[in-house]
User: Fold this.
Amino acid sequence: MTKGPETDRLLCPSSQPNHPDARVFGVQTGHSPETFRVGYLTEAHPVTRDLLAQAGEALPTEVLRIAAPCIRCSHHDGIGCRLATRVATMLPPVVGAMPRCAIRPDCLWFRQEGKAACVRCPQVVTIARGATAFDEAVAGLSSQRAEDLPTVTTPAGSRPGTPAR
Ligand code: SF4
Assistant:
């Protein structure tokens, strides 16, 4: 995938909530790492302070799947998203068909990896508490463990009903 106006508009489906265009498109269901599955919402909703508060004691990214325009973070090598590649090649499929997903038309992972990403996506947790070594290998960043993160960062200046910043 090359850099350009089209790819710059694509959405990362494992984003942080503090992007101005962040949208929640999925909610974690299940009660343990073995049973966690993403419940995909019928539409993506702007991130608000009230919505983030629904996470309670958890980090929003432990319980929500958030999409935002790709910022070409450390997972992006200038050609494509290596996180998407690891998800599509290292994880087992967990569903037989692509889930209904509100962001698919603009999803970078789907655009890059196709169905292989979608049938594995329901098991993805953006921030995994108690991540295993394998989880960290897939994530590519051992620092993404929840216990390593200092605090929940509620976007400064965000107000209920407005996109987080
Ligand atoms: S990889 Fe597929 S299921 Fe996951 S967010 Fe993208 S389009 Fe949706």
User: Anything to note?
Assistant: The longest strand covers residues 37-46. Residues 13, 99, 101, 103-104, 107, 109-110, 117-118, 121 surround iron/sulfur cluster (CB under 6 Å). Strands lie at 11-12, 23-29, 37-46, 64-69. Residues 5-148 form one domain.
